[in-house]
Amino acid sequence: MELHSEIPIDAPAADAWAVLGEAFGDIGTWASAIAASSLDGPLEAGAVRTCDLASFAFMRGGTIQEHLDRFEPDGMRFAYTATDGMPWFIRQATNRWSVTPDGPDRCIVRSHATVDLVGWFAPLQGLMRRQLSAGTAAFAEELRHRVEQGTPHPRKQGQG
C-alpha cells in the first residue's frame, strides 16, 4: 500500500527543513501522535529514532523505532524504515520525505509512504488507508502550524 501527501506551507523551505529534517529526533515536541521521541546517534544515515506513541491511526500507544536510511540536508530529503514496534500485520513500513521551495516564502513538503501488509491482511487495505489518511491529515496540520507559527499545534499543547 502506498500513500502520498503534499503539504503546502507558507514559510521558506529552510524553515520547514529545520523542523522536519534537522530536528528529526524531536518530532515528539510538536506531533500529537508522538508522546515523546529521541534520536540515538548523530543525525545521519544509520541513526535510529525512537517514538513513544500517543496514538496514530490504528496504532494505540507503544514504542516504535525508525532507522534513518537516507539523510540529505543539501537536497532537503530523508527516508526511514520502521524497524521495531509496528503492529503484527505490518511486514514493513518506509517513508520518504522531501522539502521543496515554492517561491521565497512558501514550500511543499512531500511524503511517500509504503506499508507492506501481511498477505492475508491485504483485503483490509482500504480501511487502513482511510485511517492512515486521517492521521496524516492531522500530522500535516500540526507540521504546518509548527513551521508557520513557530509553536506546537493547540492539539499538542493540550496534551500537556
Description:
With about 160 residues, this protein is of the alpha+beta class. It has one domain (about 1-155): Alpha-D-Glucose-1,6-Bisphosphate, Chain A, domain 4 (2-Layer Sandwich), CATH 3.30.530.20. About 25% of the residues lie in helices and about 40% in strands. It has helices at about 15-20, 125-150, 155, and strands at about 1-10, 35-40, 50-55, 65-70, 75-85, 90-100, 105-115. It has a seven-stranded antiparallel β-sheet with strand order 1-7-6-5-4-3-2. The longest helix is centred in the C-terminal third of the chain and has 25 residues, at about 125-150.
Note the main attributes of this structure.
160 residues, alpha+beta, 3 helices, 39% strand, Alpha-D-Glucose-1,6-Bisphosphate, Chain A, domain 4, globular, 7-stranded antiparallel sheet
Q: Can you summarize this structure?
A:
This protein has 160 residues and is of the alpha+beta class. 24% of the residues lie in helices and 39% in strands. The N and C termini lie far apart (34 Å).
